[in-house]
UniProtKB/TrEMBL annotation:
Gene that this sequence comes from: Fcrl3
GO biological process, one term: cell surface receptor signaling pathway
Protein name: FCRL3 protein
Lineage, opening ranks: Eukaryota, Metazoa, Chordata, Craniata, Vertebrata
Any single GO CC term annotated in Swiss-Prot or TrEMBL for this entry: external side of plasma membrane
Alphabetical keyword list: Disulfide bond, Signal
SUPFAM superfamilies, alphabetized: Immunoglobulin
Length: 109
């Protein structure tokens, strides 16, 4: 149930979000994983445009709202993930939806 936020082939580094709903909300106890199949070593994490830290396991559970990106050195920055902390949110699945698809929406508070 991992879901990349960028289309296949668009970027080498992908920021994976679990659970796979958008927008991402802090109270979902979400996990971010920085993935690049060709990279080795730890990811460098960015929060709100500033270098935020290095995690040798390349994944962590989010505890603060903000905009996150990761870098796997030679592969470049991932697309950003914005994590909200609002009282009410309408969420949709992260996978691509086409006209006519049946979709489940989450209205959460």
């Amino acid at each position: 149930s991992w879901c990349p936020l960028s289309p296949a082939g668009a970027q080498t580094t992908q920021l994976l979000v679990e659970p796979p709903w958008t927008p991402a909300v802090l109270w979902d106890k979400m996990t971010l994983t920085c993935q690049d199949l060709g990279a080795t070593g730890a990811a460098i994490w960015y929060k709100d445009g500033q270098r935020w830290g290095q995690n040798r396991h390349n994944r962590f559970t989010v505890t603060e709202s903000g905009t996150y990106m990761c870098d796997r050195f030679s592969s470049g920055l991932s697309l950003p993930v914005r994590v909200l902390d609002g009282p009410l949110v309408l969420q949709v699945p992260m996978w691509v939806l086409l006209e006519g698809d049946t979709v489940t929406l989450h209205c959460r508070r």
